[in-house]
């Protein structure tokens, strides 16, 4: 025979089990949201791409390339980059409006996009949200000197701040 104490324990366990099943069912239901819904083709949780304030045609061309870690070395590094114009790094125009450059640690260049961000920063990288792991931030650009820094920490340490100095047109 079951004592009243054991009966209460069994009843409590049954109620707890029933509540668990009901709560699990409720959590799997999706109720319509009262807030405005994103565009049908937008990915949830991903902000729409913002245009960069720098156009891709502004950075297409021949560049001397060097890098620095210490900001005090920037002037010296720009001079060293100018010296690299004998064998320039070529940033090409992409077929869909981007630029053709190398990603960190990639032997083959590919078309990358210039992307803006709500904070006003500009990035160069593959399609996706601005500031992604494969992106590089455009630290500064004045039309003649472009300074970028990789977002991914290991690449940022290995490559430092990349300085591109525009090479003079061929005579």
Question: In short, what is this structure?
Answer:
This protein has 171 residues and is an alpha+beta fold. Helices cover 25% and strands 27% of the residues.
Please provide a written account of the structure.
- The protein has an 8-stranded antiparallel barrel with strand order 2-3-4-5-6-7-8-9.
- The protein has 3 helices and 9 strands; from the N terminus they run αββαββββββαβ.
- The protein has a domain at about 50-165.
- It has helices at about 5-30, 75-85, 155-160, and strands at about 50, 60-70, 90-95, 100, 110-115, 120-125, 135-140, 145-150, 160-165.
- With about 170 residues, the chain is of the alpha+beta class.
- Keywords: Signal.
- It comes from Bradyrhizobium lablabi.
- This is Lipoprotein.
Itemize the secondary structure elements and their pairings.
Layout: H1 4-28, E1 50-51, E2 61-68, H2 74-83, E3 89-93, E4 99-101, E5 110-116, E6 122-125, E7 136-141, E8 145-150, H3 153-159, E9 161-166
Antiparallel strand pairs: 1-5, 2-3, 2-9, 3-4, 4-5, 5-6, 6-7, 7-8, 8-9
Shape call: globular
Low-pLDDT windows of residues = 16-45
The portion of residues forming beta strands comes to 25-35%
Read across the widest sheet, the strand sequence of neighbours is 2-3-4-5-6-7-8-9
Mean pLDDT: 82
The helix count comes to 3
Q: Give the C-alpha Rg.
A: 27 Å
Report on the biggest sheet. Answer: 8 strands, antiparallel, barrel
Care to count the β-strands?
9
Structural class: alpha+beta
Q: In angstroms, what separates the terminal alpha carbons?
A: 106 Å
Helix content: 10-25%
Q: What sequence of helices (H) and strands (E) makes up the elements? A: HEEHEEEEEEHE
């Amino acid at each position: 025979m079951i004592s009243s104490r054991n009966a209460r324990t069994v009843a409590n366990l049954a109620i707890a089990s029933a509540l668990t099943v009901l709560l699990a069912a409720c959590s799997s239901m999706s109720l319509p949201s009262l807030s405005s819904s994103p565009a049908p083709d937008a990915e949830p949780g991903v902000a729409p791409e913002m245009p960069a304030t720098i156009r891709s045609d502004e950075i297409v061309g021949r560049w001397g390339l060097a890098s620095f870690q210490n900001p005090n070395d920037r002037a010296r590094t720009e001079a060293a980059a100018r010296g690299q114009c004998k064998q320039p790094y070529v940033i090409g125009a992409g077929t869909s409006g981007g630029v053709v450059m190398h990603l960190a640690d990639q032997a083959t260049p590919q078309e990358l996009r210039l992307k803006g961000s709500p904070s006003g920063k500009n990035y160069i990288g593959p399609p996706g949200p601005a500031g992604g792991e494969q992106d590089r931030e455009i630290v500064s650009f004045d039309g003649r000197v472009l300074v970028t820094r990789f977002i991914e920490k290991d690449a940022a340490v290995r490559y430092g701040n990349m300085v591109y100095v525009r090479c003079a047109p061929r005579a």
